[in-house]
Amino acid sequence: MRGGDVHPGGVFVHSSGAEKSLIDTIDELRKYHGDKQGKKFRVWVDQVLVTDTAPGTWMVKLGKWEQSGDERIGCTTTVKFTAKDGEGLVWEHVEQTWSVESKLKDDSSWII
């Protein structure tokens, strides 16, 4: 996901409240490639709800979970997509909110 897939002004709002460029957030994921190798690690989503908010615009709300060893953390993620001619769907805004059971004191173990 790069270039035409992400709005140049797209924003990622982390569960901790920190805001960052969506493109920078995606680029940052490269440093995590393979860091969980040899460890029990899973990421999954559930409760996906898609809402057509305006012609060519959708809000997607989902539960996102990460499990490393016996620790499981989760958040509610909301993504705004818009349809752009010739580009398909473009990510415009991503926002995450901690689930009640996942309030972390240190979010350094949280990948995205």
From TrEMBL:
Residues 6-99 form the Sucrose-phosphatase C-terminal domain. One of its GO terms (biological process) is sucrose biosynthetic process. GO terms for molecular function: sucrose-phosphate phosphatase activity. It comes from the Eukaryota. InterPro entries: NTF2-like_dom_sf, SPP_C, Sucrose_Phosphatase. It holds the Pfam family S6PP_C. Signal peptide: none annotated. This is Sucrose-phosphatase C-terminal domain-containing protein.
